[in-house]
Amino acid sequence: MLGVKHAFACASGSAAIHCAVAAIDPEPGDEIVTTAITDMGALTPILYQGAIPVFADVDPHTYNVTAEAIARVLSPRTRAIVVTHLFGNPADMEAICALANERNIPIIEDCAQAFLARTNGSYVGTLGTVGAFSLQQGKHITTGEGGIVVTNDDAIARRVYHFINKAWGYGDPNPDHTFIALNYRMSELCGAVAAAQLEKLEDIVAKRQELAIELDRALSGVSGVETPVVHNGNEHTYWKYAIRGDERIVPGGVTAIAKRLREREIFTAPRYIQNPAFKCEIFEKQRTFGNSRWPFSIARPEAVDYDPSRFPGTFEALERVLVVPWNDRFSSDDVAYIADAIRWAVATSMTGGSDA
Ligand SMILES: Cc1ncc(COP(=O)(O)O)c(C=O)c1O
After folding, report:
1. Measured in angstroms, how far is the CA atom of residue 141 from the centroid of ligand 1?
2. What does DSSP say about strands 130-134 and 107-110: parallel, antiparallel, or unpaired?
3. Among protein residues, the one whose CA lies closest to atom 10 of ligand 1
4. I need a labelling partner for 314 at 20 to 30 A (CA). Which of 35, 267, 276, 320 fits?
5. If you measure from the C-alpha of residue 303 to the centroid of ligand 1, how many angstroms do you get, rounded to a whole number?
6. Edge-to-edge strands of the sheet including 52-56?
7. From the alpha carbon of 147, which atom of ligand 1 is closest?
8. Chain segment 292-349, per-residue pLDDT in tens
9. 38 lines ligand 1 (CB under 6 A)
10. For the segment 275-294, what is each residue's pLDDT rounded down to a tens digit?
11. Quick one: which atom of ligand 1 is closest to the CA of 239?
12. Residue 315 carries which DSSP code?
């Protein structure tokens, strides 16, 4: 479907990221640039491989890392860049690939939320060195739990395949366990479900996009609310539909809007993951293996500097984002209901609680 040379099924999206990182094979203490607005399953694999996640700031309107923010945190120890296409909206891959190619740094694209999203006609996951997808139950398509790793690079492909299979050299003349690796295999039962789900994927994506256009139109002109910002050349595939609420215009911001939407039985997620990932105990207290703090114990101090002043876009993004659930089984009436409820929630927040 993606036109890639290699695609491997594995146990989860976290496993897919772990395979990608392990295939790149960082040295202990090497740095992998990533985003603080993501799932923990995209960060812990970096630590398990002995590398240091280094957070780049995001564009507060798209919630994605930018080339400029990545450039600010690159160091001689940077071994890879993870680009997450959040909510299904592609990051600026043209600029990020140009930066990475200049320095010969591989890119891992985290496409857990971005099945069939495109940049200038090319699918995300195929633009960097390796792409990772999730088939967890809430994603565009699912096998309950599962993941997929894709690449055009033969050497990376071989390491991914081995990493999924306890690094046993299947087919080698004298097979052996050639490096440290886990059992990250997908079961055949899940594989059968995945094959059936893949057949539905294009329709699922098309429907989600069609419905998103309807909500874009219905919300255009609602003061204090910004609909998803999709840059020229990009195709968003709407894992979720994220709106931005400006608390300077709508008192109480997205928390107030979400509270009112609950009254209409629309369950949104204000602030998405609530806090940047570096506010979790793993990063704040460097909780890893026993009391060793490894690999944080060998990190450059600048690589683990989480001072809020370095992440204005990240904090602004989480303060303003309201994640609206999205589903290809919504009808146009459902979308109209959501739009109407958002307009009502915003209007009542602005008038201090009375129905406008
Ligand atoms: C951006 C992102 N990366 C990685 C993951 C990890 O995937 P999984 O839950 O399948 O392990 C998820 C999702 O859950 C995700 O949303």
Report:
1. 13
2. parallel
3. 13
4. 267
5. 24
6. 6-10, 147-151, 130-134, 107-110, 78-84, 31-35, 52-56
7. 10
8. 999 999 999 999 999 999 999 999 999 999 999 999 999 999 999 999 999 999 999 9
9. yes
10. 999 999 999 999 999 999 99
11. 16
12. H
